[in-house]
Amino acid sequence: MEFRYLPMTREDKQEMMETIGIENTEELFADIPGSVRLQKELELKEPKNEYALMKELTAMANRNTSTKDVVSFLGAGVYDHYTPSIVDHVISKSEFYTAYTPYQPEISQGELQAIFEFQTMISELTALPIANSSMYDGGTSLAEAVNLSAAQTKRKKVLVSDAVHPEYQQVIHTYAKGQEVEIIPIPLQNGKTDLVHLEELLNEDIAGVVVQYPNFFGQIEPMEAIQKLLENQKKTMLIVSSNPLALGYLTPPGEFGADIVTGDTQVFGIPAQFGGPHCGYFATSKKLMRKVPGRLVGQTKDENGVRGYVLTLQAREQHIRRDKATSNICSNQALNALASSVAMSSIGKHGIWKMSEMNMQKARYAKKKLKEEGISIVYDGPFFNEFVIQLNQDITKVNAALLEKGILGGFDLGKIDPSYHGQMLVAVTEIRTKQEIDQLAKELRDMHG
Amino acid sequence: MADKNFPLLFERSKEGRTSYSLPELEIDAFDLEEELEDVYIRKEPPKLPEVSELDIIRHYTGLASRNYGVDSGFYPLGSCTMKYNPKINEDIARLEGFSHIHPYQDPNTVQGALEMLYDLQESLKEITGMHEVSLQSAAGAQGEWTALMMIRAFHEANGDYNRTKVIVPDSAHGTNPASAAVAGFEAVTVKSNEEGLVDLDDLRRVVGVDTAALMLTNPNTLGLFEKDILEMAEIIHDAGGKLYYDGANLNAIMGYVRPGDMGFDAVHLNLHKTFTGPHGGGGPGSGPVGVSEELAAYLPKPLIMKEKDSFRFDYDRPQSIGRIKPFYGNFGINLRAYTYIRTMGAEGLKKVSEYAVLNANYMMRQLEKVFQLPYPQHCKHEFVLSGSIQKKLGVRTLDMAKRLLDFDIHPPTIYFPLNVEEGMMIEPTETESKETLDSFIDIMTRIAKEAEEDPETVQEAPHHTIVKRMDEATAARKPILRYEES
């Protein structure tokens, strides 16, 4: 079998072996102890030619129900937004996607400048002065923020709202264990962080308070009140996880005194692709500039005074002060940050306001419509583009029935806690039409009976 | 271009331009200002650029031309395995049945995706010789940390709370000690001997009842196979520690030897290195973790299970270290790696390693004629030269790296590993032709000659790039980390 990614001819190989002074390539592996050498061929599927493999994997893809073929009301951290065509055209430029981390600035100005622009856009959205070049995803980015707050304040307890995405909470727990940080949950009141509990839990041992804004249930957290509570605890950090699209319309966390804002830019030009790769972002106050995990791009000049960009403040990074590291992130999500940059540029300053607002408008229409059809709405507070409904039957069954009608129903909250049985988290983005929303309402009414 | 300052997208911005067409609202608008308290409504929209679609395309086309990838030219960046990124992988990853599926869809509606993940788990088990594989980790460093958290959980489950140290060779990847620190361990260094391998006497000295694990990459960062691996495994295991394999260098040994057979208890792989996931200018990657039977119970949740002819998530893992990432890992990158494995098969993957090693040895034997080669034995997929001869002439390795840019070549990894003076770590990969290798050898030989005859040309390089050497000191001293309107 010929392999199209292996260009050496028999003659090439022969010449090269002569140069090295070997009879066969086995000699190059002679230092592997014989007792552990693999004595068989690996048991893998037979290699396939490009046509056959394309056919097989296309069939495999077709066995999945794509959100392109159904009407999706499923969100819960991953959203169905329109992605402008230009996004994929830009990230398909192989000067971007086949490049490594920009360690050689002279031939990496394209990537470096694109990241610098991404940092600026995140900084604008969050209203914090510093943003890094990206993290793996919203969940790990938030977990790193928790650990950073503990390292910075030299305290070992962090309060985490129960309205933070449940999977993000789980990731926080795993990360916190490595650094011996104790996670204390803040209970909820009417779908939002309970301020009474928060106030009781705050004391001199608390490194940080984590809330999600808008929260997992779509509700807009009382940021102003939270900020007030934290004013008495100067050292305690406010850490906010935010859907960056919401920040097009809502007051950014930086204006509520947040020290760290994290989240995921999947909403901007990144397909759901079964949960990853997405793109975490990480923004901080100036005070934390030298503690930020991951990479930062800075502007400078070359020796002729031409403006350019470099990876900077690398003393923070693992490859310098390796054993004192508080983060080990190395690879990030650069290409997805690029995708989000293209999408954000496409949407633009006024567009982001409108798009964010349109999500709120259509979600309100859906909420009103469902209510009119006799479906109860669980929380009545202000919300972004998701809200919770209560049905009198199992959501798995409801969603199976909806799928028959070409609708991908909302997230089954019963999966995270039995007390939420029969509750569905409905996401409505700007691409849902009135007719689609009306149909959802009708189907749910018929089932709800 | 007259103005060498390439404009920022923000500088191209003009009030009122847009490149986005929003869907129709279709409904009577709700009064949001009445519903929300004023304090929750943003006072000013975020200053994103206002540009036309063509502006954006020209901007990023310009930026792409100021960037360099594997598709641009030779990229022998040691330890990074910058091999060709097959285009079918990109096409497969963009099929709507893969790219547009939601992680919370009913598993019955994503059986194709689950089958792919399951099949990839199985393939990686076979390639590494490990008992179980998780595809959750987003990158190599996260894989390292995940495995260390599992090793920690294993020791703690045995009531063994005093294993606080992780041994790391002085030639290790920088992420190793960082991952150890983040997992709550203290990293201790074991020295290399004059052959460039782990010094067994020093290993015996540092190992003890407090040893949680040894992190090792094999072949190591000098590109040398740790031939005493079985003895090292015995030393660590006898002390009650676990052996961890950093799979960054797996490209050298596929089909020849497996980490599981060498005695490793846990491994991570870099699918964006060995298995052709593109590097994307820094990511996203994927760093699956494989473990021995003894550690399998601690794997992060969830794994993918096969039941008769269908596939499902397995969350019922009470001893698991928990969740390390939302959802199921970097699916899109895992899919690319899967496509590659299915293209190559067992025979192809073994040939990959054969040619990766052949290419590296060929270049090493040609280049040792003009550069100092600190470790003369056969190498594996990469090798490290020292620029010590040229340094005596006043030409640093950094200068030679910059000079390579003038020939449209991405320089090797430099000043790493730390135990080689003026190091240049060169990894050609198997996807390069002999002509490319010969051309690189000629250019390197020419640069070595320039170092003798015309050192300024090298010292002042690069000469032909769009920007010259950057003032990194000022960038760090007075950081400018975002655009500000002037």
UniProtKB/TrEMBL annotation, chain A:
Transmembrane segments: none annotated. One of its GO terms (biological process) is glycine decarboxylation via glycine cleavage system. It is an enzyme of class 1 (oxidoreductase). InterPro entries: GcvPA, GDC-P_N, GDC_P, PyrdxlP-dep_Trfase, PyrdxlP-dep_Trfase_major, PyrdxlP-dep_Trfase_small. Its EC number is 1.4.4.2. Residues 4-443 form the Glycine cleavage system P-protein N-terminal domain. It catalyses: N(6)-[(R)-lipoyl]-L-lysyl-[glycine-cleavage complex H protein] + glycine + H(+) = N(6)-[(R)-S(8)-aminomethyldihydrolipoyl]-L-lysyl-[glycine-cleavage complex H protein] + CO2. It comes from the Bacteria. Keywords: Oxidoreductase. CDD domains: GDC-P (cd00613). GO terms for molecular function: glycine dehydrogenase (decarboxylating) activity. The glycine cleavage system is composed of four proteins: P, T, L and H. In this organism, the P 'protein' is a heterodimer of two subunits. The glycine cleavage system catalyzes the degradation of glycine. The P protein binds the alpha-amino group of glycine through its pyridoxal phosphate cofactor; CO(2) is released and the remaining methylamine moiety is then transferred to the lipoamide cofactor of the H protein. Belongs to the GcvP family. N-terminal subunit subfamily. This is Probable glycine dehydrogenase (decarboxylating) subunit 1. It comes from Oceanobacillus oncorhynchi.
TrEMBL record, chain B:
GO terms for biological process: glycine decarboxylation via glycine cleavage system. Keywords: Oxidoreductase, Pyridoxal phosphate. Belongs to the GcvP family. C-terminal subunit subfamily. The gene is gcvPB. GO terms for molecular function: glycine binding; glycine dehydrogenase (decarboxylating) activity; pyridoxal phosphate binding. InterPro entries: Aminotrans_V_dom, GcvPB, GDC-P_C, GDC_P, PyrdxlP-dep_Trfase, PyrdxlP-dep_Trfase_major, PyrdxlP-dep_Trfase_small. PANTHER family: GLYCINE DEHYDROGENASE (DECARBOXYLATING), MITOCHONDRIAL (PTHR11773:SF1), GLYCINE DEHYDROGENASE, DECARBOXYLATING (PTHR11773). GO terms for cellular component: cytosol; glycine cleavage complex. It holds the Pfam family Aminotran_5. It comes from the Bacteria. The modification N6-(pyridoxal phosphate)lysine is found at residue 273. The keyword Hydrolase does not apply. Its EC number is 1.4.4.2. It is an enzyme of class 1 (oxidoreductase). This is Probable glycine dehydrogenase (decarboxylating) subunit 2. NCBIfam families: PRK04366.1 (NF003346). It catalyses: N(6)-[(R)-lipoyl]-L-lysyl-[glycine-cleavage complex H protein] + glycine + H(+) = N(6)-[(R)-S(8)-aminomethyldihydrolipoyl]-L-lysyl-[glycine-cleavage complex H protein] + CO2. Coiled coil: none annotated. It comes from Oceanobacillus oncorhynchi. The glycine cleavage system is composed of four proteins: P, T, L and H. In this organism, the P 'protein' is a heterodimer of two subunits. Residues 166-280 form the Aminotransferase class V domain. Residues 353-456 form the Glycine dehydrogenase C-terminal domain. The glycine cleavage system catalyzes the degradation of glycine. The P protein binds the alpha-amino group of glycine through its pyridoxal phosphate cofactor; CO(2) is released and the remaining methylamine moiety is then transferred to the lipoamide cofactor of the H protein. Its cofactor is pyridoxal 5'-phosphate.
